[in-house]
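Can anyone check this?
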Amino acid sequence: MTDQVKIMILSGVREQGKDMFAVQVNDEIFVLDAGLKYPDSTLFGIDLVIPDLEFYEEYGDQVVGIFLTHGHADSIGALPYILRQYDIPVFGSQLTVELAKITVKRENKKIKNSLFHVIDADTEIEFKHADISFFQTTHSIPDSLGIDVHTPAGEVVYTGDFKFDPSAAPKYRTDLDRLAEISQKKVLALLSDSSNAEAVLPNVAEQEIGDYVTNVFRNAAGRVIVAAKASNLMRIQEVLNAAHHTGRRVLLTGRDVAKIVRTAMDLGYLQVPKGLLLRVKDLKETPDHKTVILETGQMGEPLNSLQKMAKKSHSMITIHEGDLVFIATTPSHSVETMVAQTSDLVYSAGGTVIELGRAKNTSGHATGRDLQLLIDILKPQFLIPVIGEYRLLEVHRDLAIRAGLKKENIFITKNGDCLNYDFQQKQFYLTAPVPGEDIMIDGSGIGDVGNIVLRDREVLSDDGIFIAVVTIDRRKKKIIAQPQVTSRGFVYIKANRQLMADSIELIKNTIKNNFEHKKFDWTEIKQDVRNDLERFLYRKTNRRPVVLPVVMEVNQNRHRAMQNRNTKNASGNDSDRRAVDVNKAGQRIVKKD
């Protein structure tokens, strides 16, 4: 049998987050990461976005495992929705697996623990057609690993989120010796993190950041409220160390940080001195200058919680005069406006703000120099930039060309692309795509909100909704009752009575015209009402609300019969008065008075 090697871009390119890639070797598929991303302001009401689960519907019987690089949501967040339907083995480091279990159990209490397998940087797993091994990487969470898939065509290396920092603690340090060892095996393709490719300045050493955090705490006169992501354990360790060195105690707020910190403590990945943690009931008795509040917010996103504190709507904490808010996470470009709004609210409440990202050049992702260094070490034949928006993939490509790679051996992909390796031509080429659409999570619904629903939500948010209700008798070809109109988010009804009255007349004329010139059809009569109202309302207001026509039918013969019965009831011939409506299917709906 001729060997086959494919690289599938399931998700995680031309966007930030939602990482999921796959390598197929003959009839075995190895999935690399299964993450989510948080929605931006254009996804109205959406809670989360995950990769296309249709991939598992089509290829699930070939997937031998999901291999995780680290414990952040962009790597593990889609697992609850995958494992809800498919029993696929999951492999990751000890901390990554424990955090994955917490994530999965949030959505599915009956998760099978037997699906999770703990590996480490020294593990090598032999499958029928390929071997999987790992190497330690530096990221903002310990136990982060890169993945090496040994295929008949050479090594396919996936970095996950990574950077180089020789000063990092041993649990966070990239294993350069292991990378050099992999390079000796002939690296066919490198899938490398592009998130910070634009950075021209080197990342500040974490040791320097730890000293800076300690100085911030030491110079603060009152409480320090730290905003950080719950899963950024490197930063949380620095906060705990700074509090200990400055004689402060730390209150953990939020379910996420409590679970993650407790798990990391139990596994020995966080060192917390005895007596450092503070209970809520002890907060009032602790002086402000001895207090640190570590806030991560819901799902590890702290900015919303900070705004609630500033507005005095937070369940536990209110920002007051003398508080210092220390934003210890480096926000993405998409939330910079929200950071500025949050800072304004904090200052209005009497506090001050320090942003670590403005004071120090820090990131958990590789700079341009780091990416070139990795290429120089591994010397891959092909490069596939991943994990980043489109411009970042382009920057990564340019950096690789300057590092010596041929332009034709670098692939800028999109979600759903599938690259098949030709053993004779020794080249990758695009083949039939794989499922690569977004699935949006809204409440308990998975994938039931699509582009049409989002477009309607956008229109509703812009111009509101206009509802028209009319009752007709199609046999008599007449309107039985005066049409009723109302709106929400469109115009103030009391100040626009003439507009509403004109709309009612328009509805009457539209239905009359439909009766006179067209054969009766429910869909067509509603469409006529909608079209005429849309044109009329735009002409009058220059707005385009969602127009919702509701056309109901009454059978006039039944209506008269019921009127006669009601007349008898009113004269005392029948003590049980009833109002009967007949819908278009001919069913009788009886309501007792």
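Reply from J.R.: I decoded it. Confidence is low (pLDDT under 50) at residues 570-593.
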